[in-house]
Amino acid sequence: MDLxxxxxxxxxxxxxxxxxxxxxxxxVATLPGTRTQRDFALRYCAGCGFAWVENPWTDFATVxxxxxxxxxxxxxxxxxxxxxxxxxxxxxxxxxxxxQWADDTRAALAGNxxxxxxxxxxxxxxxxxxxxxxxxxxxxxxRWEIDGFEEGWAAGFGRQNGIGILTREELDAKRGTYDLVxxxxxxxxxxxxHETLREIRAMLRPGGRFLFTTGNLAPYTSNIPAWGYxxxxxxxxxxxxxxxxxxxxxxxxxxxxxxxAPGHTSIIAYKVLKNLRLNTLSYWMHLVPWxxxxxxxxxxxxxxxxxxxxxx
Length: 312
Known about the structure:
alpha/beta; Rossmann fold; 7-stranded mixed sheet; 4-stranded antiparallel sheet; 12 helices
């Protein structure tokens, strides 16, 4: 999708399920916007476990403007500017966890490349302003060569802060060269999941891994509008593990069973602190028994119940 255009996109209606094609999925709610004078219709397909915003806001240059990345947009829980400039941001917990999660795949990936000692190639797709890219470059550069890809305001801000974020043309030139692609809280923003997943698959070598995070709809299907993750101006697609397994299978991946991997503890710790609206790491946060608490939360809410995937 092009996030750089200032021209509003024409109205879009998604009445049929884009996962299984069902045209009989009912509306479960009509929700008001917070930045627009619009109502958003939410549909749910019980057949495949996918929910979506029927009439998404597709003026992406406005949706993902500077206010959004300052935490003054449609999601007040994110402040990408603070995360990039605050040396003690809680986002470091997530970055650390994602790097651990990626390192857990290195043995299989290095074997696939036939050169276990060489750094592997990693793309962070939808990297925001590049905080994870910078973290991996400083903490994992002996093991990974990482690129980020983003469009719009965030990409410009990251580049201003010295982070090399690929343009669309540069990304296209590297198709099929990556051992690992991550998409951290990206898939819920996609209007066409098939298109996005095909694009991600095209970036990977055969045998490459795809790691991602996105909310798990399954625990909330009895009352989807009450789920705090539902922010219809920006989160337009919601998945159960079965719907994502189907999408992955249809876009060139082999879904892998969900498992609690190294790094998930730190990622869940970040999610908890973010939802408490805490921005800066404090000493007391290290006293919380995160290994125990994170597993309890994961068992209850299925935070890491989605499959990961390997490129066919």
